[in-house]
Amino acid sequence: MIYLTRKAEFSASHYYHNPNFTPEENHRIFGKCNNPNGHGHNYTLEVTVKGEVDSRSGFVVDLKQLKETMHFEVLDALDHRFLNKEVPEFRTLIPTTENLAISIWQRLKPKLKTAQLHRVRVYETADLFVDFYGEDSQDSE
Amino acid sequence: MIYLTRKAEFSASHYYHNPNFTPEENHRIFGKCNNPNGHGHNYTLEVTVKGEVDSRSGFVVDLKQLKETMHFEVLDALDHRFLNKEVPEFRTLIPTTENLAISIWQRLKPKLKTAQLHRVRVYETADLFVDFYGEDSQDSE
Amino acid sequence: MIYLTRKAEFSASHYYHNPNFTPEENHRIFGKCNNPNGHGHNYTLEVTVKGEVDSRSGFVVDLKQLKETMHFEVLDALDHRFLNKEVPEFRTLIPTTENLAISIWQRLKPKLKTAQLHRVRVYETADLFVDFYGEDSQDSE
Amino acid sequence: MIYLTRKAEFSASHYYHNPNFTPEENHRIFGKCNNPNGHGHNYTLEVTVKGEVDSRSGFVVDLKQLKETMHFEVLDALDHRFLNKEVPEFRTLIPTTENLAISIWQRLKPKLKTAQLHRVRVYETADLFVDFYGEDSQDSE
Amino acid sequence: MIYLTRKAEFSASHYYHNPNFTPEENHRIFGKCNNPNGHGHNYTLEVTVKGEVDSRSGFVVDLKQLKETMHFEVLDALDHRFLNKEVPEFRTLIPTTENLAISIWQRLKPKLKTAQLHRVRVYETADLFVDFYGEDSQDSE
Amino acid sequence: MIYLTRKAEFSASHYYHNPNFTPEENHRIFGKCNNPNGHGHNYTLEVTVKGEVDSRSGFVVDLKQLKETMHFEVLDALDHRFLNKEVPEFRTLIPTTENLAISIWQRLKPKLKTAQLHRVRVYETADLFVDFYGEDSQDSE
Question: A14, A89, A124, A141: which is the annotated catalytic residue?
Fold first, then answer.
């Protein structure tokens, strides 16, 4: 079993707001992230897949396929977008880094064929990142 | 003469659009940056000042003052903002990295007392940055 | 279950010395880290918490609380300090990166309320870091 | 149980080719990595060991020994080499990042005495890395 | 006058050898870089152009054109190549980082139209880089 | 004319204090850097030399000599030291990043033979660095 991780970047904007909160609650809980005009980030995405090494190619996964899947399923949908307005799941879901990692997992999981999705890591800034291992992962790493 | 550089980061969103261009021109020239909903970046700002070292303190500039000036004049105005909508100069000026560097220079220049502003560098992403040395700088890096 | 990591930096000095070792042993085992005047590092701290995402906020943890806890419990105690002289546990414990990670875990663990502390990572330099998952963690990364 | 990771870098060249593939298959599967003249990378190696902290030294592993083992067993063999031609296992094995991580594990495992090898991570570029936890590791990160 | 810099990466292999040196001289001057099988690097290229900001677009240079010029003139020629064997100028010229920076300048200079080439920076590793400002630059950074 | 830069790192501790200041002045001007026990940093040093490329070697400077000069003249003197106590010039001079850059210039300048010293850059942290081009440099970066 070997783990391979590929990084990619995308730039998007978002804001945090819960319509069920009062304005005071939204301001207290979300601070300046509550600004409805949005603000943005250069997100860094790390996708980790795991599997056995194919003895003929030496690869655990076809790197070109992995790159294309990341582009078609994630980057094309999120890059240069206002997440709250233009990405369907974030019309109702707050686009925190946590929810972004879960959303990216759900976009990638059904599309990866040869290797198994192990982890989605999303950096919002250099100082803050989130890891998701799938809904049914046991409590590991 | 010695040069001191301090970094800071801010997150903002923007889009590129010239109302005098046709939609086709806006699309051709600005590509996906033309999306009016905006997209965002973690900008990195580097401010370089120059001067003589004060023999009593060993400093070319009061670091606390420099940090505060950067916060009050730049970060408070730009961080977590949609530049086109919320920053006055970008209501008419296109918020490219070039114009952002010039705007930051103009915000900082009159506020720096002890040391002289030498350069403003703005990274839009890790792979793209702009340097500005002032309107009346001769052609030198 | 989702994991969120926040980074912070602090600058401190330290030296390595065991009073029960002979001078030769101290020198052989600790090399130039045995210099009693101390030397220093820009430490990078990564604190990882885990938990369920709160469906109302989209957060696994209140980021502002996490940041404040890291500041009050760790940075205020260690930043700009000579660890051996000014931090109580390192009067007797050698302030290696290993012991620093354990100490930071012990400082943070009782103070984190909403999310569970998962990992403390401490970088002494860019090329050396230590991970601690708690005293009673099973052998898992 | 504590985990300590040390980084090192080496520069090597390689190419990907399976003599049992047709030229078309080699080209389709390996793309420009199939160029027999080779191309190169600055590889970054992270070696993680785990163990109990020695209460006398505060160390989980003798850092100098770990550094020397990494140099003698890995860097001396791989640095400034054409992997396919000069490193015995890659005369037959394709030197992908996956196989490189496994090879480095096998080189280090028998030589580490005081602490236990936990993980070998190899970055081929900043955007692609592989983790290996040993042949008999259960499926855990 | 404003300066814009764009980064790109390429992976190549090379070795250092002067046929007019004796084997002893080649070994003494070039050390392990003299290995004729070659070794490789992930080179990072930074291209800086300068000019006035176009008031209609806010750009000093068409970023898409700059990116394409860097790809067609530099990356397509050097990426995944053995420089000594596959890049014409390095059949006779030793492919040091210095000569690589000069060669890239000469490849880019005649192809850049709207903005003026100011500097080519080439990183061979994170710890070593070279800057070239053109043959006829006065002695200025 | 070509410019070559080599990086190195060292870890040291220091504090800021002027015996001619009152305790209040020392505290106000130097803040927590005034702690006499010292605190420390992982300093990053960048040394830039300039010259013509030697057509026989392709080098502007003998890299091995440059590395050795940096080690003997700078790293051996500063690494793992308490600057105020153990480095002669800092018994009287305050070891700010500014003075450190000047001191390193003075240590290196007389020892570099084949290429000319152009710039010394010292990073105290990732967010703060100083450049020095020599006492008699005209006002140019």
Answer: A124
CATH number of the domain encompassing residue D27: 3.30.479.10
Residue F43 is part of which domain span?
A: 2-140
Contact C8 A137 (CB under 8 A): no
Total domains present in chain B: 1
CA distances from F92 to A41, F88, F96 (A): 46, 8, 12
| Selected catalytic residue, list D25, D39, D68, D80 | D80
- Distance from the C119 Cα atom to the nearest Cα atom in chain D, whole angstroms: 11
| D27, D80, D87, best to mutate vs chain E, most E CBs in 10 Å | D80
In this complex, which of A56, A60, A140 lies closest to D98 when CB atoms are compared?
A60
Q: Tell me the count of D-E CB pairs closer than 8 A.
A: 79
Q: Model confidence over B83-119: pLDDT tens digits? A: 999 999 999 999 999 999 999 999 999 999 888 999 9
Assess whether D71 carries a catalytic annotation. no
Residue E46 designated active-site:
no
d(CA C39, CA F81): 5
Phi-psi region of A80 (alpha: psi -120 to 50; beta: other; left: phi over 0): left
Nearest to F41 among C37, C40, C85 (CB): C40
Instruction: Per-residue pLDDT tens, chain E, 141 aa: give them.
Output: 999 999 999 999 999 999 999 999 999 999 999 999 999 999 999 999 999 999 999 999 999 999 999 999 999 999 999 999 999 999 999 999 999 999 999 999 999 988 899 999 999 999 999 999 997 654 444
Cross-chain residue pair E37–D85, CB shorter than 8 Å: yes
How many CA atoms within 13 Å lie on the side-chain side of E71? 6
Helix (H, G, I), strand (E, B) or coil at B64: helix
What is the block-wise mean pLDDT of chain C (141 residues), using blocks of 10 residues? 98 98 97 96 98 96 95 98 98 97 98 93 98 72 41
Q: What is the pTM of this model?
A: 0.95
| DSSP-assigned beta bridge partners for residue B128 | B125, E6
Looking at the DSSP bridge assignments, the partners of residue B43 are B10
